[in-house]
């Protein structure tokens, strides 16, 4: 069995730059606003996912073309991984958007971020290592914080069962998407990878929206443009960048900041009051991120010393 230092090294891909965590948190903040724009749009839920990708693709492709990045060659194996990431993300968005309109926002946020547990577990299995004591404490603290934050607003009922299951399925697809993107990030820079993955998701989403009979052409483009630029161009762009810099454990815990943002949006826009338990849950998630970052800071300091 690996000791604690070895475990921490195995689940941390490299000593991350100082703004990687800030990028990760900003990504989750923007992605947490996605359900709001989906509900504001006047197209079907899967069609909204299609427009998120379709409207974002030209801008991402232009940025990948103009901005400097590491040159790389895409072989057959990498092309398959990228195509798979696009299909997985399309499945994630379709499932989640269908869940968003069939259950409460709190439920969709909670179950849709089940990747917060699945992806760290994958990291430990891939590393063939148990969590260290600090990592275990951080996981438990974050889980307790999420339970406190969502416990007051989440509600299990037969009426919401289908939406809850669709959101949970979306979280599973999202975790698998993370695995594929993290693999591709070993070779590709963030923007070319995001452009290729986005391209691979457009056709499946359009076909599914058409097959389900969604209204596809919008009367109001504003929510869809906000969804495309905020969630896909900026939010998912920052997430893809972070996936090449942060460990699966940190990525997973950071996903739990999305319920914090969702609760804040409910407070500011819909007047949903926040109680002491909500603030306590948010503080516990923040503390978990601080605790789990300590091994990475030690690795970074050791790298500078070397």
| Overall SS class | mainly alpha
Low-confidence stretches: 1-15, 298-306
On the 0-100 scale, what is the average pLDDT?
80
Q: Given the structure, what is the number of helices?
A: 14
**Looking at the structure, what is the overall shape?**
globular
| Strand tally | 0
Radius of gyration: 19 Å
| Order of helical and strand elements | HHHHHHHHHHHHHH
Strand content: under 5%
- Report the helical percentage: over 70%
Distance between the termini: 26 Å
Sheet of most strands: none
Structure report:
By secondary structure, the chain is mainly alpha-helical. It is built from 14 helices and no strands. It has helices spanning 4-10, 20-31, 34-40, 45-66, 76-100, 105-112, 115-127, 133-151, 161-184, 190-211, 222-243, 248-255, 257-270, 276-305. The longest helix has 30 residues, at 276-305. The radius of gyration is 19 Å and the shape is globular. The protein starts with a helix and ends with a helix.
Topology (SSEs and partners):
Blueprint: H1 4-10, H2 20-31, H3 34-40, H4 45-66, H5 76-100, H6 105-112, H7 115-127, H8 133-151, H9 161-184, H10 190-211, H11 222-243, H12 248-255, H13 257-270, H14 276-305
Helix pairs in contact: 2-11, 3-11, 4-5, 4-10, 4-11, 5-9, 5-10, 6-9, 6-13, 7-9, 7-12, 8-14, 10-11, 12-14
């Amino acid at each position: 069995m690996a000791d604690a230092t070895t475990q921490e090294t195995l689940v941390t891909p490299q000593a991350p730059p100082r703004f990687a965590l800030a990028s990760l948190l900003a990504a989750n903040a923007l992605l947490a606003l996605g359900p709001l724009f989906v509900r504001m749009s006047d197209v079907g839920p899967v069609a909204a996912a299609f427009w998120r990708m379709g409207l974002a693709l030209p801008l991402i492709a232009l940025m990948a073309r103009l901005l400097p990045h590491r040159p790389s060659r895409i072989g057959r194996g990498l092309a398959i991984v990228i195509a798979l990431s696009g299909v997985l993300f399309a499945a994630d968005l379709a499932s989640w958007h269908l869940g968003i309109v069939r259950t409460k926002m709190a439920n969709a946020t909670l179950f849709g971020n089940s990747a917060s547990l699945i992806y760290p577990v994958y990291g430990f299995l891939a590393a063939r290592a148990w969590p260290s004591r600090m990592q275990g404490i951080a996981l438990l603290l974050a889980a307790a914080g999420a339970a406190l934050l969502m416990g007051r607003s989440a509600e299990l009922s037969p009426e919401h069962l289908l939406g809850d299951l669709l959101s949970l399925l979306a979280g599973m697809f999202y975790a698998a998407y993370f695995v594929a993107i993290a693999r591709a990030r070993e070779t590709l820079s963030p923007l070319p990878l995001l452009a290729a993955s986005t391209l691979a998701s457009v056709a499946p989403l359009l076909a599914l929206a058409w097959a389900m009979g969604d209204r596809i052409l919008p009367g109001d483009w504003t929510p869809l443009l906000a969804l495309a630029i905020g969630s896909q161009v900026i939010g998912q762009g920052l997430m893809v960048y972070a996936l090449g810099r942060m460990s699966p454990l940190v990525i997973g815990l950071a996903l739990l900041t999305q319920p914090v943002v969702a609760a804040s949006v409910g407070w500011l826009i819909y007047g949903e009051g926040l109680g002491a338990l909500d603030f306590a849950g948010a503080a516990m998630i923040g503390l978990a991120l601080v605790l789990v970052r300590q091994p990475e800071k030690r690795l970074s300091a050791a790298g500078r010393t070397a």
